[in-house]
Protein 1
Amino acid sequence: MNEQSINFIMDLLFNPNVTNNEFNKESFDIVYNGLKEEIESFEEDPRAYSQIRCLEELDNSLEFSFRQCGYIEDLNNITPKSLFEYYKSVLKSDLIDIFIIGNIDENKIKEIISSKFNINTKKKESDSHYINFNDFRKRAKVVKEQKDFNQSKLVIAAKVENLSDFEKKYVLRLYSHILGGAPDSKLFQTVREKHSLCYYITCTSRMVSSLVTISSGINKENYKKCVTLIKKEMKNMENGLISEEDITKSKIAYISSFKELQDNPSAIIRNALSHEYIQTDLIEESIKNIELVTKDMITNVAKKVHLDTIYLLEGSSKDEKN
């Protein structure tokens, strides 16, 4: 079945539903209308909307601020003909890698792919995918926006300065996990459990973008107190108020997640893809390296985290609910 399956994929790739050098109009319209609906409904998701709005306010020229669903004005310029022209350019000009996983005869699979994949590609060096920052605000930019949602959304974005490869791949992960990546994290325990100021709060590190983002669902009346507590916990991390227990728990969580990848073929492929394009480590090496992170490393990274943008999507109702 391997060869038949590959033949089927190649048929889809090289013999698409095209007439007179343009995609079939009926098929095009189905996809077009689906994407249009997704774009138009984007602002109805307050959590996703607030996160991208914060990044737009941070810097709307950088890739991480672009909306993944796209923009109506761009969609309106796409036609069945222009889309097919773009499709041909992808097959002709883009860097193409093929990942295959399974109990296979590698040489046989390579032979089948080579005979069916009729594209002359040449491996070329690509520019770095990583974003690095050189300028940092002395005071965070504050943006407030009102929309007709029940719950307010607070999103805080911080730029991270001059990280080494090891810090990007491992130390920053543990920093964000200890700060707000789990129910026993500092932000969750302080803002939600101790002070009951939010419905949820989470912290995420973005390795490629050199960003740390904190997201929370709150009542707008609690905005100032929430921000004050978040800043305090970030400062505590800078001052080394991190226990060995915090670090051990975070390491266990990440090692468990890495091990789970080994049982998921799709996850293994994604890991290999990241290794190829952004030089992340493979699973076994990641498990070894996460163990090397120390408290001093995390404290040093905490000092490199600079608050940049505080965005509040204010709900219109005083009696806000989750």
Protein 2
Amino acid sequence: MSPADASSAPRPYRVVQWATGTLGRAVIRGVLDRPGLELAGVWVHSPAKDGADAGLLSGRAATGVTATRDLDAILDLDADCVVYAPGRTGDPLTDLDTVCALLASGKNVIATNGLVYPQAHGPSLVEELERACKQGGSSVHGTGFNTGFMADVMPLVLSRLSRRITHVYSRECSDFSRHPSWRMVHHMVGFGRDEEKFLRALRPKRTAMRLLYTESLHLVAAGLGVDLDEIDVDVDYRLAGTDLEITAGRIPRGTVAAARWTFSGLAGGRPVISVEVIHKADAARIPDWGDPGHSVRVHGRPSITFTTDDEWVSDEVTAAAVHALNSIPVVCAAEPGIRTYLDLPPVTGRMDATAPGGL
């Protein structure tokens, strides 16, 4: 490249990765591999990672970018965007002050869990986010790691093929038999607990799950032009009929081994948008509620159904990371403020015609 060509080349987007769990490390690798992106900084939660090289944390060669636990150091960075990925159970609402500080510092924020449709949480949250965006001239966008795409984007895509829509339904069924984390399987999902302990934990869990999925229902409702009156949450569960040996450990007979969450967005006294979330410790031995995979159905004229098995994506973590990375250019180019899927132009992936493998 000649000096003239170099001077005219667009400046890469400088990206900060917030947190380095499984998803965060995938984001770092994606930034390092992708032309047009540059790693500007990394925030870590663990003291053991403080000062470590970001490349080494992600399984790559050293990059010269040092991870930090110091928020002020991140705020002072010259960066265009922060990919905010505090973990699968992390929620930007629990640390809204940090999100707003990042926005006020002039950095766009792409959240991989939450902020898909902040308007679902009321005007106070919206005002706080908009105030920070105005101060920094920045935008905030949620891609939705847990509920992203199938529960919000796909229903809106399929709705283009139908008129007089009366109901939208999405379902995700996950098999945890090969999940390696006992913390996730037992403490977060609740498998392996006796019935009494599971029910005792249900109230705070119901609140957390409602917060997690409410945004998706409201986003779809807004896209379809309907106002939801309320969201109803129901949960059912199944006990293991025998000991289940799964990768994360044993699920003893008589303890909780499956749960089904149903979220219903009501308008005019009836459900108009429903999301069903099913977790199974071992899907092969728990036939209730169907097989692992995803389904989306738009009831209308005509009705549209899209169904996949659990192999619809070869690597869910990488897909979630790329979902965020592909959003960076459009979010950075957007007008300041809250930007949902309803506000942004369509986001696509990038073709590499030189890559091996073909179709």
